[in-house]
Target: HD family phosphohydrolase
Amino acid sequence: MKRRSTIDQQKWWKRLREHQYIRAILFCSIGFILYILLLGNVIPETLDIRLSQIADKDIRSPITIEHRTATEERRSAAVDEIGPVYDLKREYAQHQVKKVDDIFDVVNKAKNMEEELVPNRDLEEEPLGEEELIELQIEYMKEVLSLRRSNGITDQTLIALLDAGESQLQIAKETTTNAVHEVMSERISIRELADAKQEVSNQIAVSTVSNRLLDAMIEVAQFAIIPNYIYDASATEQIRQEAAESVEPVLIREGQLLVKEGEMIDHDIYEQLRIVGLLDGSFNVFPYIGLALLVLLITGMLAYYVNEAQTSVQKNNSHLLMYTLIFIVTVSLMKITSLLEGLEIQGIGFVVPVTLGAMLITLLIHTRLAIYSGIMFAVIGSIMFNNETVGTFNFTYGFYMLFSSFAGAYFLDKSNRISRILRAGLFVSAINIVAVIALLFMKTVQSGWFEIGMHVGFAFLSGFVAAVLTIGLLPFFEAGFGILSTSRLIELSSPNHPLLRKILVEAPGTYHHSVVVGNLAEAACESIGENGLLARVGSYYHDLGKTKRPHFFIENQMRMENPHDKISPQLSRTIIIAHPYDGADLLREYKMPKEIIDIAEQHHGTTLLKYFYHKANKDADQPIPESQFRYPGPKAQTKVSAIVGIADSVEAAVRTIQKPTPDKIEALVRKIIQDKLEDGQFDESDLTLKELDQIAVSILETLKGTFHQRIEYPEDVKGKGEKG
Model:
């Protein structure tokens, strides 16, 4: 009952930890703390400065923004430089020549149309007088030529044209049209109109007609001369618009020096300070909103990756809590280090131990998550260390932290366990130094050797500090969250551990069996890329429950009667089936890691106790259900647990073979794996058929070393040896 109650509690706590709201709370905690730590780095700085005040320090623009007043002034100046645009209307010359021709044609027509002028006149009436006829002709010409609204041609001119003879009128027409065409072919602006009319008069004055007709010709010609060089309003507006648009906006750029220390703040400087927001004391909500969105983006991407990555954090909320603490500790140390920049020591920010987070995550969780977290640390660090820049991001520190985190994660993943943390620290220091030198040398303004030395020294110290902090914090995380790191597994594998000593003293046969199972399981796990050390240590403890009744298990029955021969198969079943759960309970009492407990509890899965099942059926009146002689489970939930179960069965079965040979052993190993596969014992462990074949090959290779063939010595040699 106690065992069942404990199992139920474990399942209840497991369901509680896996609730998504717990994960949401943890990610919200990361976001909230991140927002608080970054808030001081994004709130815009304001200055208490007045006109004519002397600046007590250099002031640079924190943003890039347009100086709209200066831009408008430049555009106005560009527009003012553009004069009016004129268009030369060359077609006007033809139009005006045609108009002169029309005047002379109408005059000719008016001279010969007395009857048309008085269409209803009776023949018996007296003929029109000369003056009356001229008046009608003038009225007709004005009507046809639309001259009523114009004073360009006087009645005297029309009369002079009417009085001219046909030949004289033809000469006048040709002379006038030629003069008008000649003058109108040149550019004539409004200002040049008077000169053009004088020019046409001069050209007509050489004609051989009478003075009266000459004056009429001049008046007609001057009437026809109009400006042909016209102001184009739309073209002028378009050019001025293009000139205004071509003016580059006046920008106050991020980092631009607005005022030097000791310089007086005049109106122009004061206006620039106002534009960039350094004088704005009002509350600006946008930086707060921007930071909230950025933090939401970081935590959202982090949550998505953690939930998708194939690591222990994906489903284990306890590991997610540990990851949250590592993340918070790392960014908190980054914030503390960023505050050291206030000491104004060259390069002190490069001492930031950002690699601590990557190292701890690599050792305790997975390298992939450490690398991804390193990217997040770099983004966060570029904001935290923006004190020396005028913008929001300091990409120099961002790149430095990125390379530093990658170096720690990669080196730890490929190193051995004994000294890899300190060695990783030295490797990170070397990468830090290279990164710092590269970043310093790429600057346009070269640093002095002393400054470079300070930066290099702090970069080296960063890797060392990160390694020391990792060594110091690692045991706390391992103990607090039951993490099975390599060092913890090595500690648990020590023969001096109380539980291993208990097995050795109380069940020595089981101890030897567990060691052999550990050898088989470790090699098999490593053959498919699983944690071999975990398999070995789990194998050491998997049969701990046998210490409760050691003599009921055959490996501990040395030269003694088998107690199962005196009890019923049902009682034997109860004793045998209890040992995985007795061992798991004992492991829980000793606060052993969950992975070790799971191996002990799951290594038999729901297999059938075939020997006692058949024995019970032999004595029973009716068939007994298999379920009564099966382990209650659970089945192996991980590949390591399944492999330990295979190794356990193989080791126990191989010892029963009489005169073992490689063929016999291989046939037995393959049969055991095939039986477990068909029985569904691997259904929940994610083992593939290919991996099962690799496991079989690995186990056979290991067994060859245990059951290798020995040389048969001749009888006479053996006898001589005994006598000697």
User: Anything to note?
Assistant: The longest helix spans residues 449-481.
